[in-house]
Automatic annotation (TrEMBL):
InterPro entries named among the record's database cross-references: Chondroitin_lyas
Organism domain of life: Bacteria
Record organism: Aphanothece sacrum FPU1
Entry-linked Gene3D superfamilies: 2.70.98.70, Chondroitin AC/alginate lyase (1.50.10.100)
Name of the protein: Uncharacterized protein
Length: 764
């Protein structure tokens, strides 16, 4: 007889903390996925002998209220280099740990109650920690979680509010994933059981072409110093050839390159990261062909370097611990590769290495969530966004999927990196180029294809593969996007020539909008070097500790083979962007969207309002705010394939001495001549852009030569209204009625005017 279960159930209920009246049903379907609980002032430490309280966020993974026992905590203002580990002790939504209950467990509770124990570290370089205990009471409401907590940490009683967010599972478990077997190698780029098929691929025309390109890259210079030491990457290429061709000599070459890399550490973590990434990939490929002493030596080295990259370094050594920094992405991608490579090695401790993998995952997730926008625009600009992906991030994402059976890409900004650049790139002299933003003024180029194709969704893959085949594959330059030896095994193992390709125009929207970062891109087609791409960067967000250029409202225009509005020099100077500069003032920091409209043909209108610049020392305080409206017209109504309109106006103390002078700036690569109120840019192929200032009425245009071409400057007023047409052949006639921002302009069948703080196009 089992009557005693009825007797002990109320006791279990009481111990679980559910002693309040039961008057509310909790929808357990809400409590599935990644759940973040932020405890107000849930952690503290002494600062200048005074207690300073900070928030801590606890991360749980749950399925209908049933949560995994592992809990992770992060308190960036306490120490952004540390992730704190803990356990879920009790959860009143989970059935009691008693088997064969003669009744169905009822979750009709008034609140969700948790007890969590955390081990809080004060810095990543010491293993000492202190226990924190939190008892949390929560109520899910309309997609949010509200509640309170009480607990203890560092000999103090703590209590406060709790706010929570729920999001889909990330990473996503991969169905039918086969766990790796002990000592299984290769495992990072591809699995061991894929090797026979890859050896057959090597006999095909495509396989031979990829291996030929690999051989070309292996003839490139090898560097064991500089910003990107590549000895490890050359070892990867040789180890891949060793596997594919059963070539012991290539494996020996891979060992020599690896051994030399181990003996030449990078100057800082920034430089050490590509060394670790290359060595980890080479180790995985050459593992079946190296002897045990070699394997043991590299295993120990990778374990030590992984620990170092996870912990970070002192800012005195250049280390940037900001989650959105490219340093974080470089280092933690490499650390993840190192840990995944040596997981389950006999001389390592499994839980320790799994901890490194988890920490790498958490750092990478924070990087993706903070640095990369919802459609792939990176807050640090194109170079510092794409470089970490090429050096370690793309390899880590693929290796994590293979080894852990988890997908970190789907549903994250990572799935947009390659599609984002496909939206922006145009063929130019055999290369796929992009009008860039940020420092160094370049991007990862075709390497984004060789490494990034596995991250592309099925929706975009046919269009991306069409572009890949046309420019980089058998129909193109046959480089397959391989610019460095380590990239060859990635595209070799993932290239699929059975995909039915389509022109990207059939799979992509011609408009790309990254709402989070404020990037708007307008494209007319994917045909050839005459395609048009125009974009404008609102810069909706600034994160301290990351690279940031004064590019609020800066725009780029390419089309008909010309780079009409281009980036300036790679310097964080206001006049190196295509903006209105106020010489005696600081640049704008951010802006917000005030209007947006688009059309299926790729045309669009964007208006932004900047933050205010205020001189608080003046009496009374003086300030100014800017508004820019940017219009792109590919309709052909104007009689030309590309029409672009820019309006700038200012509000506030526009005549104050520090704000009075205003200079409209645009950088270009073409040859520039000035004709009255117009400038004419001529590209090498004969195409032209003609820009005409409707305002100011007494505009003064000048041109300065630069290292990258020319800089067009316009002065003469507080408002700017400019019409730019791009064409081959004669310029269209521009008719202007009225003056200043009240003007109405007619070009062909297109009419343009400015009202309500936005540009209007009659044919739109």
């Amino acid at each position: 007889m089992k009557w005693h279960y009825w007797l002990i159930f109320p006791l279990i209920f009481f111990v679980k903390g559910a002693n309040a009246p039961i008057d509310k049903n909790i929808d357990l379907n809400q409590l599935s996925g990644n759940i973040q609980l932020t405890l107000k002032h849930g952690i503290w430490k002494l600062w200048e002998e005074k207690p300073v309280y900070q928030d801590i966020t606890l991360d749980l993974v749950c399925d209908r209220g049933n949560c995994q026992p592992e809990v992770w905590g992060y308190a960036p203002k306490f120490n952004q280099d540390v992730d704190n580990q803990g356990t879920l002790e009790t959860n009143n939504l989970e059935p009691p740990p008693i088997i064969n209950l003669p009744f169905k467990f009822n979750q009709s509770l008034d609140a969700w109650r948790l007890k969590i124990k955390m081990q809080i570290q004060f810095n990543p370089w010491q293993n000492d920690s202190q226990e924190a205990i939190y008892e949390i009471e929560l109520v899910p409401q309309k997609g949010k979680i509200l509640g309170s907590y009480q607990g203890t940490f560092n000999q103090r009683f703590l209590q406060g509010a709790v706010t929570g967010n729920m999001s889909p599972h990330w990473p996503i478990p991969i169905s039918n994933h086969r766990p790796i077997t002990p000592l299984e190698h290769p495992r990072l780029i591809f699995r061991k059981d894929e090797l026979p098929k890859l050896k057959e691929t090597a006999k095909t025309a495509t396989g031979k072409a990829i291996l030929a390109q690999l051989q070309k890259t292996l003839k490139q210079p090898i560097y064991y110093d500089g910003y990107v030491p590549n000895g490890g990457y050359h070892a990867v290429g040789n180890c891949f050839l060793a596997l594919i061709n059963d070539d012991q000599k290539a494996a020996e070459t891979g060992w020599k390159l690896t051994e030399t890399s181990l003996k030449n550490p990078g100057r800082r973590i920034l430089e050490q990261s590509p060394i670790v990434a290359g060595v980890a990939l080479a180790y995985d490929l050459c593992y079946p062909m190296w002897n045990q002493p070699q394997i043991t030596q590299v295993t120990k080295w990778l374990e030590g370097q992984t620990s170092r990259l996870i912990k970070g370094d002192s800012p005195r050594n250049g280390w940037n611990s900001q989650p959105a920094s490219n340093w974080n992405a470089r280092a933690r991608g490499a650390a993840g590769l190192g840990a995944l490579a040596i997981l389950d090695e006999p001389i390592t401790k499994r839980q320790k290495i799994k901890g490194y993998i988890k920490l790498s995952e958490r750092h990478i997730k924070r990087y993706l969530s903070s640095a990369i926008g919802d459609r792939g625009f990176g807050i640090e600009g194109d170079h510092y966004t794409t470089e970490p992906f090429v050096l370690s991030m793309f390899p880590f994402l693929q290796a994590y999927r293979n080894v852990m059976g988890q997908d970190l890409v789907t549903g994250s900004p990572a799935q947009w990196i390659l599609p984002h650049y496909v939206m922006r790139m145009i063929e130019d002299n055999g290369e796929l180029k992009v009008a860039t933003y940020g420092r160094h003024r370049y991007y990862g180029g075709s390497s984004l294809f060789s490494l990034g194709i596995p991250t592309v969704s099925d929706e975009f893959l046919p269009g991306i593969m069409e572009l890949f085949n046309r420019y980089l594959g058998s129909k193109g330059n046959r480089t397959f996007g391989i610019n460095s030896p380590e990239q060859a095994p990635f595209i070799f193992s993932k290239y699929n020539n059975t995909i039915v390709t389509q022109n990207p125009v059939k799979t992509f929207n011609k408009i790309l909008v990254d709402e989070q970062k404020g990037f708007y891109n307008f494209r007319n087609e994917w045909q050839d070097k005459d395609d048009f791409v125009a974009n404008i960067y609102l810069k909706k967000q600034v994160i301290g500790g990351t690279w940031s250029f004064p590019d609020v409202g800066s725009f780029r225009i390419w089309g008909l083979g010309g780079h009409w509005a281009n980036s300036g020099e790679s310097e964080a100077k206001w006049d190196e962007e295509n903006v209105v500069v106020i010489p005696k003032s600081r640049p704008w920091k951010v802006s917000n969207l005030s209007f947006f409209a688009s059309r299926p043909n790729g045309s669009g209108i964007v208006s932004l309002t900047t933050d205010a610049i205020v001189n608080k020392e003046s009496n009374p305080p003086l300030g100014i705010q800017g508004l820019r409206s940017f219009a792109v017209d590919y309709s052909g109504a104007s009689g030309v394939p590309g029409l672009f309109v820019v309006v700038d106006k200012f509000m506030g103390s526009v005549e104050a001495e520090e704000f009075k002078e205003k200079v409209w700036v645009m950088h270009t690569e073409g040859n520039v001549t000035i004709e009255g109120k117009s400038f004419i840019i001529k590209a090498n192929n004969g195409a032209t852009m003609k820009g005409t200032f409707v305002a100011p009425s007494q505009v003064k245009i000048s041109v300065e030569k630069t290292n990258k071409g020319s800089k067009i400057l316009a002065r003469g007023g507080n408002e700017f209204f400019i019409i730019m047409t791009v064409q081959k052949g004669s310029y269209p006639e521009i008719k202007v009625i009225g003056t200043g921002l009240n003007s109405e302009i007619k070009i062909g069948n297109q009419q343009i005017y400015f009202s309500q703080n936005r540009i209007f196009l009659f044919e739109f």
